[in-house]
Amino acid sequence: MLEIKNLHATVDGTEILKGIDLSIGAGEVHAIMGPNGSGKSTLSYVLSGRDGYEVTEGEVLLKGQNLLDLAPEERAAAGVFLAFQYPVEIPGVPNTTFLKEAVNAVRKSRGESALDAMQFLKVLRAKVKELGMSDEYLKRAVNAGFSGGEKKRNEVLQMAMLEPALAVLDETDSGLDIDALKAVADGVNALRGPERSMLVITHYQRLLDYIVPDRVHVLSQGRIIRSGGPELAKELEAKGYADIIEAAA
Amino acid sequence: MAASVETVEKVQSLGERYKHGFVTDIEMETAPKGLSEDTVRFISAKKNEPEWLLEWRLKAFRHWLEMPEPQWAKVDFPPIDYQDAYYFAAPKSDDDKPKSLDEVDPKLLETYEKLGIPLREQEMLAGVAVDAVFDSVSVATTFKKKLEEAGVIFCSISEAVQKHPELVQKYLGSVVPAADNKHACLNSAVFTDGSFVYIPKGVRCPMELSTYFRINAENTGQFERTLIIADEGSYVSYLEGCTAPMRDENQLHAAVVELIALDDAEIKYSTVQNWYPGDENGVGGIYNFVTKRGLCAGRNSKISWTQVETGSAITWKYPSCILKGDNSVGEFYSIAITNNMQQADTGTKMIHLGRNTRSRIISKGIAAGRSAQTYRGLVSLGGGAENARNHTQCDSLLIGDRCAAHTVPYIVSKNRSANLEHEATTSRISEDQLFYCRQRGIGEEDAVALVVNGFCREVLQQLPMEFAVEAQKLVGISLEGSVG
Amino acid sequence: MATEALTVSEIEGRWRDLAGTLPGAGIDWLDDFRAQGLEQFRASGLPGPRLESWKYTNLPRALRDRSYTPAATAQRTSLDRVASLLPAESTRLRLVFLDGRFSAEHSQLADLPEGVTLAPLSRVLRDAPQRLEGLLQAADYDRERALQALNDALFDEGLLLSVSSGIQLDTPVEVIFVGGTSDEAVESHQRLVVSIGRGAEATLVEHHQSVGSGNGLLNLVSDIHVAAGAGLTHLRVQETGDESVHLAGTHLQLERDARYRSLAFTSGAALSRHEIDATLLGENADVTLDGAYLLRGRQHGDTTSVIRHTVPHTSARQTYKGALDDRARGVFQGRIVVEQDAQKTDGRMLNKTLLLSEKAEIDSKPELEIFADDVQCAHGATAGELDADALFYLRSRGLSQEGARALLVEAFVAELIEDFPVEALRPALLERLQHWLLGTS
């Protein structure tokens, strides 16, 4: 599904990613763990095409298509979804409007017809129900005045609506208490499927108790220094990053 | 098709009425170019006006000659050559009114369709009566009957001068005196047409009243004059939309709108202004120098201005409220969008005179391209304005690094029991928001339109439904090419 | 000899008599500087309410029935003591001016630390006039700045404070202007020249006071330059007598990483106006302009400021709060200008006024003028009376109506005083605030 080959990227002229190789098969969930400053968030922005993140070497293929030539919205249409660490507030724009714009933009670029208001609301209401959220969410402006947990659940709702091929979850656990974390993880797990790959980026092992990955990679100073099964996350939790990084050096 | 037949009849009846309305001994359809006392006399004669109105016009004209141009606005344009314009133009078909819709100039119909008011579908726009001003003379008025039943007078101001001279004489110039400012003064001297509305005591106007103005003929300045009187306990919502075709030269549009709300009356006045803004190099476009003012004359009266200003090369406009009646309420909700080389200096004045008067100002300014925009507002709490309240929120959004946004509020409080709060912010459109939208698949220009519409939401919500949809689309259209 | 106040013909006449006797006369650059100021004033005349920034302050009307004796020719009586804002035990550097004349007797200039110049201008112009060259900032050619132009022409006293690079001047520099020391109404044109060198730090305490009702007129211009990485903390207390006219203009320039923080406390004068023109010339320059105004009777107090952001990454904060009683009138005109290159500007301005009587008036005009897009700017203004709920709450806890009002006004203004970084100066300010409150009805 996703192939990252020798990816190098700079921010403001400083190299942050220094050669990442990563391959995620269809339906697989991989976790990337790493200390602060290891390049985790940079990787999520490079994959989604944010301005200011310059790829200097390497390639990123999604289902064989080169993502790096595409604008952010084209990548979204190609199936890339980023669940933001800090979901952005857009005052005055109701969630429903936002989602409808997004879903129809993506449908349009995939050559599908736009959903009319009634069809759209029907799908949306069903997803909201599945995720155990309240309809009241939909009328409120995007993320404005949402609690941390609400914002993250809203990201999951968007993911459910946009049905991406690749979901990148950037520190989705940050700022959540255990109940909110479980609720978000349940939502994510419900979206796992044979045609969807996920890249879960996190600092802590805690999230991985609830979203159990197929593979775990440790990122340090812009490189993946170790990969393993879910047990690697436990080892990290027990030993801390310092030991693992030292051992790998 | 019943609808078409009815419309045809209306158009015909209108034609007949106007034949009577015009003086026949003047052959010309267009006043000679330029501005002099003779122009003023020509217009007045053409409209068969009573002596007092001619005198009023001439007085305004003499004043206009003496008056300096207002200099304080942050707008920049070469001096206007007032002699290089026509001050009166009637449609060519004036003496040969269409007998059926087939005879109506298809271009005219097309224009109306673009404006969203196809005559053939008038009836479908249930609840909207349209008095369309094409250049200077009304050509179609609909829903007259329903309004007449309610006792509402909704007609062109020329007609009102003939049929309701006592109301016109009593209220014309009572809120915006002829000598108020140079532009209003010019309007007073040469105004050609516009709308007149009178809502009798206790009547809630059964539908939204709407006027589309349009500048069509070349070199024609348009000087509408609108007068709306809401008698005791009445209510009216009035919608005004404006557009103009592309012309290379600048055209002057100096309108005056006066609103009078008596005891317990309410007037809601909404404008979507999309006059031609000139091209991306600032060539052409309308000079929109408009004086709009409402007088809350009575107790518990309310006047609410809502405007969406996206057009015009230069906008100079301050819809205001004089809150004279105790407990009266003034509101101003504004969205101003400037792009390319547009300049706008707009805002409001809330003059609190009566006790317990309230005002609310929400202004959203969006500047893009090389445009310059100024919010200029006055909130004055007078000595007699016991317990008056004002709240002002005034936000500016900048798109691109060559535009400018200014905020110039004047705040005068002479009453300790009065309470006033003013907040203003200026910021750029957020990179984070745009990226978030784009990551969800929304293209850059759509993302800008979405974020800007969100920024304007509090104001858009104030618009009547059919305007709100048009206004949201306009936001997107106006900002085309502002990013990337 | 009394003359008609500040008309062009009167000033021209005085110029003919005085020009040759002004300190520094005969120094080419200074003669040119003065001549330019005169020319400009001659072209503008006294600024009147037709000028936009003078809309709310009618100076010609305020001066109509007044006449003044120039400081150079006035007779002064002696003065026993001069009030200070600093605690009694403080070490001092102090200059005192009595109606525009330097008073060595009341001043304290001994033990100047190395690298610090502090001297009355008359002395600097006599001994080392070259030290001033480049430090005096001429008024822009602008009719609204006519008073500063007049000062350019006529200033004859003031002070120079110059702190060399890297010097941390711990002792506050106190400069005290005393009015009302003459039987005549004295008009003086003074100049306060402050230059803080690279990385240096200083604190300036500027204090305007009067003997009695102090019926004079002061036209003061300050030229303040804060070099890269330097910092200046400036307290300005204007509590002159209620017959006096106080006109002040501050030119402020901040270089890269420079910091300037001021608190202007205004409770004096029949008519006062403080014009501030602050320019942020270097990145990371940071300016805080705070002000408190407490006016009553028929006092008129005007603050008109412009903060210009000319380069990226600069920040400004301005908070002016005041209480107006009786028929007092307050004017606040603040303008933040963000020039095209000044991306990432962070500018905030707030003006809050309590109207304590039915006849008091505030005219507030907080402006933003923005030519760059990547900025965060905001301004706010409020005007009104004390919060009725808060008043009621306090009274329900046993406070009298007057006590409750005083407490709320005090809290409203004290916030600014408590934010002022020089702790040693706060007690004197709080004392003045409380004293003022005793006089509210």
Brief synopsis:
Chain A is an alpha/beta fold and 249 residues long.
What does this structure look like?
The complex is a heterotrimer of chains A (249), B (484) and C (441). Helices cover 40% and strands 29% of the residues of chain A. Chain A has 249 residues and is α/β, with parallel strands linked by helices. Chain A has a single domain (2-248), classed as Rossmann fold (3-Layer(aba) Sandwich), CATH 3.40.50.300. Chain A is globular, with a radius of gyration of 18 Å. Helix content of chain B is 26%, strand content 33%. Chain B has helices at residues 2-21, 37-46, 51-66, 106-114, 144-150, 157-163, 165-171, 182-190, 431-439, 444-455, 457-460, 465-478; strands at 128-134, 137-141, 153-156, 195-199, 208-214, 225-230, 235-243, 250-253, 256-261, 266-274, 285-296, 302-309, 314-317, 320-323, 329-338, 343-352, 358-368, 372-381, 389-399, 404-413, 419-428. In chain B, helix 6 crosses helix 7 (165-171) and helix 10 (444-455) crosses helix 12. Chain B is globular. Chain C has helices spanning 8-18, 28-44, 59-63, 121-127, 146-154, 388-396, 401-419, 426-438, and strands at 3-4, 67-70, 93-98, 101-102, 116-120, 157-163, 173-179, 186-196, 201-210, 217-226, 231-239, 245-254, 259-266, 271-280, 286-295, 300-309, 315-324, 329-338, 346-355, 361-370, 376-384. In chain C, the strands form 2 sheets. In chain C, strands 1, 2, 5, 6, 8, 10, 12, 14, 16, 18 and 20 form an 11-stranded mixed β-sheet that branches. Chain C has a 10-stranded mixed β-sheet with strand order 4-3-7-9-11-13-15-17-19-21, with helices on one face. In chain C, helix 2 runs antiparallel to helix 5 (146-154) and helix 6 crosses helix 7 (401-419). Chains in contact: A-B, B-C. Chain B binds chain C through residues 72, 381, 383, 396, 398-428, and chain C through 52, 340, 343, 353, 355-385. Chain A: Belongs to the ABC transporter superfamily. Ycf16 family. Chain A: InterPro entries: AAA+_ATPase, ABC_transporter-like_ATP-bd, ABC_transporter-like_CS, FeS-cluster_ATPase_SufC, P-loop_NTPase.
